[in-house]
Amino acid sequence: MRADAEPPHWVSRVLTRRVAPALALLPLVVAILVIGLVGDGERTARPTDTLPSGSGSAGAAALIADLPESDGAAVVLFEAETGTLPESTVQDLGVLAERLGATSSDDRSVRVAEDGTAALAVVPIRSTDELGQISEVKALRSELAESTPTGVTAAVTGPAAVATDIDAVFDDANTRLLGATALVVALLLVITYRSPVLWIVPLAVIGVADRLAAVVGTQVMAGLGVAFDDATTAILSILVFGAGTDYALLLISRYRSELARHESRYDAMAVALRRTAEAVLTSAATVVLGVLTLALSLTPSTRALGVASAIGIAVASIFVLVVLPAALVCFGRPIFWPRVPHHAPDRPAEDGGPADRSVWARVSRLVSRRPRAVVAGSLALVAVASTGLFGISLGLDASEAFKTKPEAIVGAERLARSFPAGTSEPVQVVTEADPDAVLRAVGETEGVESTTVSQQADGVSLVEAVLASAPGSDAAKDTVETLRENLDPYPETFVGGTEAEAVDRADATRRDLLLIVPLLVLLVTLVLGGLLRSILAPVILVATVVATYAAALGASWWIFVGVLGYDGLETNVPLIAFVFLVALGIDYNIFLVTRALEETPSRGTREGMLHALRATGGVITSAGILLAAVFTVLGLLPAVGLAEIGVVICVGVLLDTLVIRTVLVPAVAVLLGDRFWWPRQIERTS
Questions:
Q1: Measuring CA to CA, which residue among 227, 194, 278 is closest to residue 590?
Q2: Mean pLDDT lowest for which of 370-384, 398-412, 479-493, 532-546?
Q3: How would you class 37 by CB atoms within 10 Å of its CB: exposed for 0-12, middle for 13-18, buried for 19 or more?
Q4: CATH for 363-392+501-686, among 3.40.50.1240, 1.20.1640.10, 3.30.1330.60, 3.60.15.10?
Q5: Which positions make up the signal peptide (predicted)?
């Protein structure tokens, strides 16, 4: 054993030839039994799941859901394939609409546009739950496909139809997402390890952890009554695979280098686990605390994402620190074939030797020789990328929320050309006050085209108002605000509907950002302070991660506008991207700085940081590229908002991995020297 090799650790007494197989297999067997016997948690979706708690739109949705007659309506748009609709065809459409149960305020089943090219019918949706509404819309579309007269096309739009199309585009999306994620991880692991067999072990361990996290997460959320949906489980899966693989890369890299120092693979793993466990646990704790700040959000589905992500990270870290080490030592050195690490105590260590031809040796020399230029260049790059922040537009309307427009969106756009723009998505005013007085107040509001009392039951009335402005426009949002001001005198009156929901989500996002962003920054700084027992180093590291976020969001905006052709950011993208980037981005700084702290007593701060850069450069860069690639898989989903989250995190992780952690942080440490650890004083060893 080399002089610098560590003596056997207590872990080596646990990871023995007899115990290791049980330690590897028992958690896997238990996990598989839980996955198979318990299964994913289930809950009935509520209209308020994605609406800010306490908002007017949430209050309206809750009251509407309790109305006995229906939860909404589907708008059927009939359009002449050529020219205008003949009178005989209009009569046939009236008969069809009556059979479908269509109603209107003037007792006509269909309403013909002034230009004569289209007609609409409003068909009640009787179900009060989302699945029931989806079933009704599908049945309605099936009936229209068979019964619509020749020469006429029919499209179903309105909120219920939009919900149906959302469900359709997400159908089997999580299965496709999981397959694509596993394929990306497998490919990158093969490239990283250059082994046709090694990748199987971490991928299998993390794959089981992913499914267990989904089961545990959904069961916990269902038990707590926390709202979750397909987007929640999709991001959970991405996070488990990404973070779990990162932790595995760090462990396996250190294990490989220790195999050259120790003849016993158990001793090698004991040292590797001892040296990486603190960094992994600190990283996992940081991510868990970070994502849990989302539980303070006003939006139920965002709170669910925080809870699910925390559970996923906890499960992933446990599997990597318990199951993966035991599994690796069971297979021994041949698992690394064809690049099998042999015991060579006199050979220079593979994890940081300053070989002249090493990429990371060249980078460390650049940082050592010109730290001021490196800092200036890095900050200039961040500043340039951040300029995109000044052009960001927040908020997407329904027509912009999907990569490919579904029937409900296409129908709404066509309807707006022949009818008042807000016909397909009327504002919903729900009141327990005098309905006639509320109706008058709504009708007198500037920007309201028409009004009707569509439902009344148990003292609750639903007034629907068609706006003159196009859905998603600033004018429509202004009308909603004016409407709410005019209805202030009426108690228990709520303004809901698509436009009101957009206004409330924007307000909730601003509040969440003001609360969660500073709290997350404080939590991460405190965790790093406890780990490093320092004040200055944590402040520097957190500042670099926040700068990375600003640059990533700014650079991503240019991608969205110039490359992908998006019109804006989904409202919740900045918050979710910030939480994940700060929580995950700090990981790589933790991996680097903890290694530097390990080397500093014997080498000094300057050389200790440079040695840490050489030692961790390959594995951290591989981990960052892998995590970035995994988050790009979100782009396979049809929702623009999820694709935007994936792009921002991908850009941020790459920037953090290739610039911030690689050159900026080491250059700052080189410039500051021992002051980097202030006020901590590190004793030098001989």
A1: 278
A2: 398-412
A3: exposed
A4: 1.20.1640.10
A5: none
